[in-house]
Specification:
21 strands; binds magnesium ion; alpha+beta; Dna Ligase, domain 1; seven-stranded antiparallel sheet; 16 helices; binds adenosine-5'-diphosphate; globular
Amino acid sequence: MSPLPAWPPALSEAQQADLAHQAATYALANGFTLLPVPPKGEHVPAIPTQVIAAPLSLLPTPFPRPAYVQAKSIQRLYNALYARVALDWEFLDGIMQYVAPVDDFQAELWNRWKAIRDEIKVTQPVQLGIFRSDYLLHEQGNAVGEKSRIKQVEFNTIAASFGALSQKASEMHRYLSEQTNYYHVNPQLHNPNSFVDNHSLEDIAAGLAEGFNAYGNSDAVVLFVVQEGERNVFDQRALEYQLLKRHRVKSVRLTFAQVAQRGQLDDDKVFWLDCPLRGEQLEVALVYYRAAYTPADYMSSAEWDTRVLLERSTAIKCPSMALQLAGAKKVQQVLAEPGVLEDMLLGNARPDVGFGAGPGSLGARDAAALRETWTGLWPLDSSEEGTKAVQLANEHPERFVLKPQREGGGNNIYRGDIPPYLAKLEEEDKSRPGEAPRREAYILMELIEPPKGVHNLLVRGGEGTPRLADVVSELGVYGVALYGGKVTPVNREAGTLLRTKGRESDEGGVAIGISSIDSPLLV
Ligand code: ADP
Ligand code: MG
Ligand code: MG
C-alpha cells in the first residue's frame, strides 16, 4: 500500500472559492441538504421553506484502497453475525441481565421485548436489518497511510443514517472533479477509478423494498417512524422517493405520537393506520425506524406502548427490538471475548439465518477476518477482566474511550476524563448499596489512532466558507439482511459512507454538527 498523497492539492483562494460555490449550488440543487437549525426558541417549521447544504468536504479524502475493499468484503459476514445474535434469545438475555440493572433504557427495551415473547412468541418471524459497520483507520507504519488497517468503531443496527446523502456526496465529488479539473494535481488521482461508485441510497431503498415485498401485500405501505423536529429529512425522503419511483412502494412518515393516534392492531395483529386525509386505512407491511434509538425518543411510557404495539404486529420491523438489542455496545464487547464470535458465527447450536453462517458455509478464516478488524474491548464488571480494565483505565487513560449503551453520538468519555468519571460513578454507588456498580453500564475500548497529516477543506452546513482542517475520516459500510421464518434470505453489502471531522474533535457525528459528509478517493 502506498502512503497517502499530500492532500489537499494546492488551490488558489479563487479556486477554493469557486469550488465552494459549485459545491454549495450542487448540494442545494440535488437534495444534498438538511433543514436549517431553527432560530432560538422556535421549532422546525411544519412546512419548510428553507434548506442548507449538508456539512460537506470540498474534495474527497484519500483512503487506502485495500482497506476500503476489505471493509466492503466482510460486510456480509457482519450481517450474518448480527442476524444470528438477534435470533439467539438466550445469548441476548445472558448479556442483558447484567446491563438492565444499570441501564434503564436497555432495561425497558429488554423487558418489553421479553413480555411480548412470553405473551405471543412472535407474530412476524421475518426481520429486516439495515446495518452500518463503522471503522477508523489505525496507523501502524511510519509514513502516512503506509500500514493503515481498518478497526471497527461500532456496529449500528437501528436508524443507520446518511445512506442517501452519502451517495450524493460521492456524486458531487465526481461532478466537481469533472467540472473543474482542480483535483488532478497528482497523476495517481487522474484515474477515474479513484472515485468510488457508491450506490448506498439505491441499495438501502432496494433493501427496504425487499422487506416490503416479503410481507406479501402490494397495497400496504412502509411506515417511517421519525423524530419530532428532525433536520436530516432529505436523507430519509430520498429513500421514500426511491421506494416509490423505482419500486412502486408507498410510504408514510409519522412520529411515535402520530402513530399512537392513528394506529391500531386488528384481531389478526395486522397494523392499520388511519389516514383521514386520504380517506383510507392503510396496512403497514414494514416499520422502518429512524427514531426510537435514544431515551429522548421515549418521553413517557406512551412511546414505549406504541413501540410494543408495532412490535406485536404482523408488520416486518427494521429493526426488531431484538435486533436493536443486538447492536448494543455491550454485545460488541462480549463478542470480542475469546471464542464467543467463533461460536456465534460458526456454532452448530446457534440459530440458522439461512445465509452464510453456521457449519459448512463459513469457517475459521471468516471469523478471523472479523476479529482482525477489532481493537481492545473490556467489560467494566466485577470479573477479573473487569477489575483489570478499571485499573488499566485509571493508569493509562490516554489509551481509552469509555462508552455507555447509547446511540446517536456525544455520549462517550475520552482519555483523561475517564478516571474522574469512574470515581464519580463509584461515589454514586455508595447510595445504592447491594446493587451492581454503575460502571457495568459501560464498556472500555482502546482508542484507534488514525493516520496523521491528512487535510481537507470542510464546509459547515449553512456557512459556505471552507476551512482547512487536519482530518480524521470514519468509514461506514451499509448492509442489508432479510431473514427469519420462511423468507428467501437476503444478505448484501449496500454501499459506504465517509464522515470526515477535524482531528481536534473526539466525536464524529454529522447530526451533532461535527462531521462533514465526504467520499473516499482510493489510493
Ligand atoms: P455512537 O453510537 O454514539 O455513534 P460510537 O461508538 O460510534 O457511538 O462513538 C462515537 C464517536 O466516537 C465515533 O464516531 C468516533 O469518532 C469516536 N470513537 C468511538 N470509539 C472510538 C475508538 N475506539 N477510537 C477512536 N475514536 C472512537
Ligand atoms: Mg451507533
Ligand atoms: Mg457511531
